[in-house]
Give the backbone structure.
Amino acid sequence: MSVRDLLSPFTAWKNIFRDPVSIEDPFNREASERYRGFHRNDVEKCIGCGTCEAICQNGAIDMVPVEGIDGISTRPGDSGLRPRIDYGRCCWCALCVDVCMTSSLSMSNEYKWVESDPDKFTFVPGVDKKQWDDVTHGYHRPAGHRLNAPERIEMPELEPGERIDSFVEIVGGYSVEQAVLEADRCVTCGICVATCPTHMPIPEYIAAVRDGDYERGLKLLYDSNPFSQICGKVCTRKCETTCAASHEGDPIAIRWLKRHITEQIPFERYRDIIGGPSPASGRKIAIIGAGPAGMTAAFDLARNGHRVTVYEAESAAGGMTRYGIPEYRLPSETIQRDIDLILSMGVEIRYNTRIGSDISMEQLHLENDAVVLAIGLWLGRSTRIPGSDHPHVFKAVDLLHRIRNGEPLDAPKTMVVIGGGNVAMDIARSMARLQKQQHGEINITLTALEDTAHFLADPVEIKESIEEQIRILDSRGPQECITDDHGSLVGLRTWKVLSIFDKQHRFAPTYDDGDEQLHEGEWVVEAIGQISDMSLLGEELTEKLEWNRGRIQVDDAGRTSEPWLWAAGDCVKGPDVVSAVATGHKVAASIEAMFEQENADA
Amino acid sequence: MPEGKGYKRLKAQTSLEDILVVATEFERTARDFYAGLVPKVSKQIRYLVEELAREEQQHFDLFTELLARSDIAGQVRQSIRTPASDRRFSDCIHLPELGDHPDDQAVLQYALGREHAAMEQYRSLAESTPPGPIRDLFQYLADEETEHKNELEKRYYEIVHSGGV
């Protein structure tokens, strides 16, 4: 044994005075602040879009229903599902956190979890309460770090100066490159499908844009909506209000992508792609009204081989889409293409035919296996304030009809519109174009009871109206249409509305009559609401039918209390093109079911 | 106008009971008017007239019940602690000629006009009466009519001002 060997144990003792390099209590060591530990989910922010599930490379996430737990419920924009994570598969890569559309998913820096039961390591963060739920440290998606682009591709549009003196269509449409970029933003969660009244397969047709497979896209569109070209331009796009991308950016431009698909295929090829009708069934159906609801029902029923006759009071089909929406938003050729496609299925339209005077309801009943009432909302409401019976006080729907019908109209130099909905914007903007053409300048004031935040008009319509020099005055209560000593209309007197709704969001206006204004106008146009003209039913049928607060009562399938009569569209559901399409499908399905039942019973 | 036939009739009354009897009679007249209108209007809007008749019946019942109580003044005082405020929406609504086949808007306009006139009548009576139980009663009746008018205005907005497309 050497001296070194003898001394070496003692040299080790010198370390007793050094700081320890090992950890005294490894079980309570905190991980670094941004460590990717166990998952957390803010279930209130989470919408159950399943993007985390789609991106997970290990299949560690599946979406499970959690309705009823902690107040979570299925509601518009929320699937009612939440991610469940299997820690037997998770590799803590945090892609799920990085892609989360609402930033509800994050990771704590907690990393220790001891269980004897391995199944416990599969859990629903945020629902299955864990000790790390309230830990402040951990991994969140860094600000500005996005896996998908938050901003939508801008739609090319005519500038206000270029469009204000004509009815030329404003929107130009996406190029293929623009459409693909926009389609790339979609995470295909499908939450929009539930919100779309007619449940169009939105993620699938957006995928078709991405793939450049427009034929597939067109087929998907027309299988669910025969008004796809029209909806590609004027849909109220409820789908976009629940789009997952809208939580931290712009919603996907679903409407514009639909439009893009329809623009990529020559119309002559539509029919081949969509397919023709089934062999004739021998069944006959009469439909009253060639608007979106009536023509959708006609499309579905004709495709099933039934003989469909549509009775239309006007000289052209399309209903309110043709006679209520201005040309600059929806050109006539667009409407006609959708109508022509429906007609190509064998649908017959009898134009200029009024039910009640030209043909009775009873006759339709006797000559057909089923009758569908789809008459829309064609009568404009009036405020009926003093002076509103003046001949220069008009209803917006009547004026829009005259403009779309090509009737010459001498625009007044000054005009006031009452109303804050899309019809009000449509008539204001249409008359602004006529004023510009005829007088070289625009002088239109739009007044609404509601404040701007509660306008029913599409925000884009409001923005474009302002761009087109419409003077929009919100919170103005109409009091009287004023005439001068010669009986000429000079304007509208209004009071300031201080508040409009009570706590239950019911109408309870308060006014400041000290703030009274006279808005100059040779014409006053009322755009406050619409109603159906049910006089075609006649007294006897009106008495027979059940009604629900002024509207014809229908069951979930659109069938009235008279078993031979169905009702669909605006006259049942209120004004909206895509909702009318949805009800058209519904009544067609109900009639089809009745035929099937009758065939089975025979 | 407040100073109409009903105003004079009410003004002439000197006891709470007599005033309530006249007010109850007004409600009965209104109820009977709407009940009589029911078969004249289209079935489409019959619900509206039936609702109005029911509401007038409720007022009739309320006043009848009040009349049966021994402490009318005490009950009235309690009820007017939170007076209803007039929304003034109906100020500019025409009182229409109902005609043979009125539409829903005309029926509502008419109902609003009636409630508005009744409210103003009771309010005017309250203002011209010295403080005391009778004034309290007029104030109470004015509040009841104002509440009803406010409710009708909500319905009017929901039916007529759908906002367009």
Observations:
- The domain at 5-160 of chain B is CATH 1.20.1260 (Ferritin).
- Helices of chain B lie at 5-11, 16-37, 43-68, 72-79, 104-127, 133-160.
- Chain B touches chain A at residues 42-48, 87-89, 91-94, 96, 104-105, 109, 150, 153-154, 156-165 (CB under 8 Å).
